[in-house]
Amino acid sequence: MFTIAIHGGACSVTRSELTEEKEKQYREGLEEALTAGYNVLARGGSALDAVEQAVKSMEDNPLFNAGRGANLTSEEKVEMDAAIMCGKTLKAGAVANVRNIRNPIALARAILEKTENVLLDKDGAMAFARDHGIPFEPDEYFVTEHRFQMLQEAKEEEESNNVGKGTVGAVALDQEGNLAVATSTGGIANKKYGRVGDSPIIGGGTYANNRACAISCTGDGEYIMRAVAAHDVFCLMDYKGLSLREACEIVMKEKVKELGGGAGLIAIDRSGQVELVFNCESMLRAWRNERGEGEIAIL
Ligand code: ASP
Q1: pLDDT in tens, 189-230
Q2: Other C-beta atoms lying within 10 Å of the C-beta of residue 199
Q3: For the domain that residue 168 is a member of, what is the CATH number?
Q4: Catalytic residue at 35?
Q5: Measured in angstroms, how far is the CA atom of residue 279 from the centroid of ligand 1?
């Protein structure tokens, strides 16, 4: 038995903006990423490898707010956050505000594998990347016209929370029964002062534990962190015995929503059950299991 689920960001697309062409592109991007992760699981690979491959695919695709095509800071730079966690060992690796790293999720994975640390930031994380042969790219690789426009809109609105969201993530259950999660993002458009979102915060936007589930969040990071959303889903299942669906609905549609955050999450439990829950208009999302069941959806 194996299953994978992915997201390409919540609250980032509105019904009115979603042209036929845009929808086609999103669906193709999601299909490609889902297949990259699914193929790892189908040939008996680990959940950790599967979520890394799925997220890498979306980091390489300029459509999504991660890696190439990520949001721009107020200074027109791309600064990215990412995290990966293994539900079996509870080992985790994360990076905050790294620049010029082609695949921040590969750097997070190297931190998980090769250090005793969990979270490295900025120059230190980039020095570690250099020492470990992680690929870099020049600024032009990351900056797209679309994100530049979004930054101008965000600056006009003077409220970075309303424009330019999105994040990518994946959760998986492998044939050995292990769970894993990966999340990667450019954060919100027009972010300032070294702002870090929920994605690289273990327990905030990213958490996996074989005792219950794996969760990747997306949306208003400040609210997700304050709700400790990913770990809260785990706690409701592990301590209180709630089902995956009950736990996800309480955290996303009650806790995060009541705080005021527009957000979503994808989650998977030990039986391969998947939940894709969001409290706003859209979440780019997809899942597939070993029987070929699944879906790709946006609104
Ligand atoms: N959660 C991300 C952050 O706050 C952004 C998003 O998913 O929309 O950095």
Answers
A1: 999 999 999 999 999 999 999 999 999 999 999 999 999 999
A2: 33
A3: 3.60.20.30
A4: no
A5: 14
